[in-house]
Amino acid sequence: MTTGVVVFTRDLRVHDHPALAAAIREHKNIVPLFVFDDAVERADFRPANRTAFMLEALADLDASLQSRGAALIYRSGNWAEEVLALAEQVGATAIHLSEDVSGFASRRLAQLTERSRSSEIRVETHPGVMVISPGAVLPTGGDHFKVFTPYYRKWLALPWRTPIAAPKEIASIQGLDTRSAPKLEELSSGPLSPNRVTGGEGLARRLFAGWRESHLHEYESIHNDLPGNSTSHLAPYIHFGCLSPLELAASALWRDGAEAWVRQLCWRDFYHQALAARPDASWADFKHRGDHWIDDPAALNAWKEGRTGFPVVDAGMRQLKEEGFMHNRTRMIVASFLTKDLGIDWRHGARHFLEWLTDGDIANNNLNWQWTAGTGTDTNPNRIFNPTVQGQRFDPKGEYVRRYINELASIPDGSLHTLGPLERAALGYPDPIVDHHEAIAEYRLRRA
Questions:
Q1: How would you write the chain as a 3-class SS string?
Q2: Which residues of the chain are under the pLDDT cut of 50?
Q3: Cα–Cα distance measured from residue 237 to residue 252, given in angstroms and rounded to the nearest whole number
Q4: Does the UniProt entry include the keyword Cell division (predicted)?
């Protein structure tokens, strides 16, 4: 009649939760736990959008657990110490949690494993954060994949585990001090986006079910359509594990038109396996190219505030602050503009994104930034996005731009991306802070 502790991290759900399922199979009583890690609270920035989303997801998880007979236990402090202390308090024989790949998660797990040895409490890790765990997809020579396409082929060819149904009941120890989650203001500094999304597994599953029926079949043709805004918007729910990446991929793969979307889930796995092999690449160049970055605080601030004078760039940056989200096509455009037009270090952009994105994820965010900057896994490091051409191609009528730039709301279709200086002055909209063609010529000289 044993007890097991299930530690929730980036897996805030009850559906397809291998760690929870394994604990239920092995133990009579389950103690669900979430620890507010003081190492996170001591970080130099604590993004409000992600913190608020996480608190909402935790409340939803607690309600799901309670409806099944258990309650989520909250603790705050040193993560490894708090996990082990509760496990010892309830007489647990094992601690179950999902395997993560970030350097931060790996260090926490190592500390917990080391501390648990003296207590003779097993620490068991399980899949759940990715579709396929990093160690399962390896090139012929071992190590890790550095190029996406061969990784994708092998990823698709491997057998996937079967998604696990949510438990109907969870036996737990009654009378434990569950405590309460801290308030948002205790955990976060900085403003909230006024139109951010709400966290939680229940909402996430409804959103996915609706989008799967309405838009999944046409994803390949619509995913670059800026004004249509018809992509899944599920990234925050995947980041916090409100949705299982495996369950999403398995439920979508054989539907008409779904492969392009499933490919995006594979990109996420690809970046996670790259970061698992190269944890330094979270902030260091994956491939060092000797870039000579420009220190230009005024240009960086204009980019952050959406005042560069390039409408599609500025619309994306304003969307980021308004919603805690940015369309994926626009993410590439604004990243290319910062690193290649302005010549500013990609790390400044990655950090700004992490401060605002509700789906901010070190592996996806920072390695995508490196892909655009030309220091990452990309085989075409000098790819350049012309912001004017991108706007004309993917927002030809200017609907996306007008949605986020009030100064340009009255501009008719067609002329918005090529405004002249007199029109800009009359509208209170800035002139371009660089000449794109001159800036790119200078970029090529710096990288030569």
A1: CCEEEEECCCCCCCCCCHHHHHHHHHCCEEEEEEEEEHHHHCCCCCCHHHHHHHHHHHHHHHHHHHCCCCCCEEEEECHHHHHHHHHHHCCCCEEEEECCCCHHHHHHHHHHHHHHHHHCCEEEEECCCCCCCHHHCCCCCCCCCCCHHHHHHHHHHCCCCCCCCCCCCCCCCCCCCCCCCCCHHHHCCCCCCCCCCCCCHHHHHHHHHHHHHHCHHHHHHHCCCCCCCCCCCCHHHHHCCCCCHHHHHHHHCCCCCCHHHHHHHHHHHHHHHHHHHCHHHHCCCCCCCCCCCCCCHHHHHHHHHCCCCCHHHHHHHHHHHHHCCCCHHHHHHHHHHHHHHCCCCHHHHHHHHHHHCCCCCHHHHHHHHHHHHCCCCCCCCCCCCCHHHHHHHHCCCCHHHHHHCHHHCCCCCCCHHHCCHHHHHHHCCCCCCCCHHHHHHHHHHHHC
A2: none
A3: 16
A4: no
Structural domains of the chain, ranges and CATH numbers in brackets: 3-128 (3.40.50.620), 130-162+201-277 (1.25.40.80), 297-447 (1.10.579.10)
Give residue 68's pLDDT.
98
What pLDDT, on a 0 to 100 scale, did the predictor assign at position 250?
95
CA torsion, ordered 407, 192, 275, 157, to nearest 10 deg: -80
How far is CA 158 from each of CA 18, 132, 153, 164, 246, rounded to the nearest angstrom? 19, 9, 9, 18, 13
Confidence at residue 122, expressed as pLDDT on a 0 to 100 scale: 97
pLDDT at 94: 98
135: burial class by Cβ within 10 Å (0-12, 13-18, 19+)? Answer: exposed
Exposed, middle or buried, 292 (CB in 10 Å: 0-12/13-18/19+)? exposed
**What pLDDT is stored for residue 320 in this prediction?**
99
Through-space distance between the first and last CA atoms of the chain, rounded to whole angstroms:
67
For residue 46, how many other CB atoms are within 10 A of its CB?
16
| Tokens of residue 139, six digits | 């090139």
Query: In the beta sheet, which residues pair with residue 122?
Result: 94
38 vs 210: CA distance, rounded Å: 38
Q: By C-alpha distance, which of 362, 308, 353, 306 is closest to 332?
A: 353
- As a residue count, the chain comes to 448
Locate 148 and state its tokens: 């996406």
Do the beta carbons of residue 177 and residue 291 sit within 8 Å? no
